[in-house]
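QUALITY CONTROL LOG
STEP: pairwise intake check
CHECKER ROLE: data steward
CRITERIA: each record must contain a sequence immediately followed by its structure tokens, with no blank fields

ENTRY 1 OF 2
RESULT FIELD BELOW
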Amino acid sequence: QLPTGLYKKVLVILHDSVLPYMNEPTLMMDFLTVAYGVGGAISLLALNGLFILIHQHNLEYPDFYKKLYSLLDPSIYHVKYRARFFHLTDLFLSSSHLPAYLVAAFAKRLARLALTAPPEALLMLIPFLCNLLRRHPACMVLLHRPGGPAAMSEDPYIMEEEEPSESRALESSLWEIQSLQNHYHPEVAKAAAVLNQSLSEMEDDISGLLELSAYELFDKEVKKKAADVPLEFEQIRGLFGKKNDIFAEHFSLD
């Protein structure tokens, strides 16, 4: 039983400072699978070590994707380890052998959670979702469903369902991304509008967006050179500022 702070520190360095130097890295299977089941930030940090054991040491984890799916909650867009989590999730969902219902469930859940996400997370998430759709053409129905979202009386997706195969994500659509096209941040609205067009075959590189911060986003906006906007100035007359208004005859602004 480790204190939470020490637990996190161990998991942060485990994948690159411990596992490569062990004669039998598989001895860490129980430790990492238990950590993966704890939930919250500890589960996110256990992903790195688990990935190495699954990828290089043939660890079998039958409910791996179900557990990964359960980690998707509103906090993933705000946690300190967001970049690490999405980098690994991108790797886990890169295989073309994954069933369409599973990828659709991840895409739909991420899109639903995006409705309350900050702009810096959305600028990473939208290309992330586009890459998922490129890799798994069977999920394109989420974008190009006949009739679109308007054809549905309600969204069939079951957000509370823990089992991805029972979430009915493939019967739904990504109407959340359409909503983001009206986002208050112009860069987010512009990024979301890409889905109105046919997606290119080339995947977007999200590596530079994983660690995008609110400060960097704000700094970028401040440093933009604004074009000179021509303004027409007309002297205000009267109460409501109209030239031939009856109020202008009886009221004046001093």
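ENTRY 2 OF 2
RESULT FIELD BELOW
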Amino acid sequence: AAILLKLGGYGLIRISSMLNPHPPNLMFPIMILALWGILMTSSICLRQTDLKALIAYSSVSHMGLVTAAIIVQTPWGLTGAMTLMVAHGLTSSALFALANTNYERTHTRTLLLVRGLQLIFPLMSTWWLLTNLTNMAMPPTINLLGELFIISTLFNWSTPTIIITGIGTLITATYSLYMFLMTQRGSISTQFRILPPTHTREHLTLALHLLPLGLLIMKPSLISGLFA
């Protein structure tokens, strides 16, 4: 999710620049698929019971935004796509790392079986909250900057796209909160009352994911040339 999807995004940027200006019969079907994919994959996240499947579908939803922004071929669109690709790479990797810490201790990825981990791992629960907030594009992370650029670009290209992107953003917030509540809140099962403690390396890994997301907003030109 952090590497392969970015290679696909890079390939789209290179090919789109070669096809500029886009022929309409090529542009519109890809744009429709990208926008429809945002809604479909976000909706699929709401009915997932497997934690890793939920995170994977979340990645596809965010890359739908990136694809739509690249196809428009404007400076704001490409800047938003680059920013969101970097932000998504860090956020998705952090979510998979968190899912792995849960799986190593409980040996299950089913959301209904593992609940209430906040009582046992309060610091890990804090990482869950921060990572889900970045997945929702909450300020001051670069996720928000990338999504604002992309939504503005699509709105400038076609006004009705604000409805699709708005609904997609709302569903993203819904399944991010759903993922946090299902893993951290509620009453824990009796079979998970005694679990191995978390390690310093796990907290360091998550800190190295989340710190760039918060600090890059101070100098976005590091990942996009628009503010240079």
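INTAKE CHECK: passed for both entries
DESCRIPTIVE NOTE, ENTRY 2: The chain has a mean pLDDT of 86.
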